[in-house]
Every structure is written in structure tokens, then in C-alpha cells.
């Protein structure tokens, strides 16, 4: 069985807000992990192991990772 995707995001990120809006409008079941941009969590090893570019947002669905907001939205649609 496929688990719900996980969105790594921060509300200050416009691309992350766009992805979150699509998830809300589409009523897509999703887990959320907040990344604190002010503490530079996106540049620390735990997050870099998920997204080596250190950008937000990132979507992880099972073993599949997507690091670009437009690609995330296309995948969710």
C-alpha cells in the first residue's frame, strides 16, 4: 500500500505555498514537515539527505523525491 506523500515546506516560501494550496484545493492527503528557513534547516545534513540542493519545497512519496514546485504540482495532479 502506498503511504501519503510528505511535503517539506515553509510558509515563507512562495513555491511551497503554491504546492500547499494545490494540496488543500485538491483535498490530497499529505503529511507536512516544517523546515525553519531562518535556522537554515534546509542547509543542514538531515534535510540535505532528502534534497541535496537545499531548496524548499520537497515532496517525498514512498522512495520518490521531487524537489521542484512545478514538478511537485504536476505529480500531485
Give a verbal description of the structure.
With 77 residues, the protein is of the alpha+beta class. 31% of the residues lie in helices and 19% in strands. The protein contains three helices and four strands. α1 runs parallel beside α3.
Percent in helix: 25-40%
Assembly category: single chain
How much of the sequence is in beta strands? Answer: 15-25%
Ends distance? 19 Å
pLDDT averaged residue by residue? 96
Return the structural class. alpha+beta
* Radius of gyration, CA atoms, in whole angstroms: 12 Å
- Summed up, the helix count is 3
Sequence of strands across the biggest β-sheet: 2-1-3-4
Main sheet overview = 4 strands, mixed
Strand-and-helix sequence, N→C? EHEHEEH
Shape: globular
Q: Would you identify the regions where 5 or more consecutive residues have pLDDT less than 50?
A: none
Short description:
This protein has 77 residues and is α+β, with helices and mostly antiparallel strands.
Key attributes of the depicted protein:
single chain, 77 residues, alpha+beta, four-stranded mixed β-sheet, 3 helices, 31% helix
Give a topology summary:
Blueprint (H helix, E strand, L loop, with lengths): L5 E4 L4 H12 L5 E4 L10 H4 L9 E4 L2 E3 L2 H8 L1
Parallel strand pairs: 1-2
Antiparallel strand pairs: 1-3, 3-4
Helix pairs in contact: 1-3
